Amino acid sequence: MEVMMENLLIGVIYFIGVITLYYLISSKLLGELRSKKVIPHGTTHELEVMLKWLFIGLGIFGLVVVLINIDMLALLLITILVIFSLISKDIIESAMYYHFLVVTKAISHGEYVIMTRGIRGWIRRLTPLYVELSGEQGEIIRIPNKLVASEPIRIPAKALPLTIVIKLYLEKLDDIESLNKAVQEVVNFTKRHAIVPPRFRIRTITTNSVEYEITYGISNPESSNIIIKKVAQRLQQLFKEGVKFEVKREHSIINKL
What we know:
One of its GO terms (molecular function) is mechanosensitive monoatomic ion channel activity. This is Small mechanosensitive ion channel protein MscS. It comes from Ignicoccus islandicus DSM 13165. Keywords: Membrane, Transmembrane, Transmembrane helix. With 257 residues, this protein is α+β, with helices and mostly antiparallel strands. The protein has 7 helices and 9 strands; from the N terminus they run ααααββββαββαββαβ. The protein folds into 3 domains: 86 residues; 57 residues, SH3 type barrels, CATH 2.30.30.60; 91 residues, Alpha-Beta Plaits, CATH 3.30.70.360. Strands 4-3-2-1-5 form a 5-stranded antiparallel β-sheet. A 4-stranded antiparallel β-sheet has the order 7-8-6-9, covered by helices on one side. α1 packs antiparallel against α2. The longest helix is centred in the first third of the chain and has 34 residues. The radius of gyration is 30 Å and the shape is rod-shaped.
């Protein structure tokens, strides 16, 4: 009877330990991942349900093992630890790399980085699982922390160029100087969104069209969208009749200014 009570006490302690571990993982770890938007809310709920039933199963199984054969409990705990370490190996490794990136400040929010694999963009945020970049075309790029921490990364010292091409269509090209002044007005109107003064040049001239190239020095992806919008807005104000235009962005963020 006394042995049975001891086994039951051990079983209760084991069950409490399982519940505590479940609470730490579901409330603390998953809560932090959800608050940092590392994983979507719906996915977090699914993981919580899965963990709940997993730990309930472990708790009940552990109690049964204790009541039947206390010696099997040690083997059960070792098995659980081995399985848990194998499952969480990548997560733990990623968290360690995250800690390394944060402590060493190898990269920081807002920096433009170029990786050896050709991946490039502005750092939006660092998470325990990945680094999120905003690409040159506005796309979201997520790179595992291990890849970021283990590969050489180039951080340009200066602003990178954004090239915008403006093509003006006219019935007849007879006053290039007035067009140059208009483009200069566009440059002046948008230069406050660049950290390096923009410059423009004529690319091509035909009998009824002129193509201009404007290069800006920018430091964040949001500026490129603002500049394009402002360029189109100013052109529309300057050329209300007789002139059609098109504005496009070139994939030119390669070399630093």
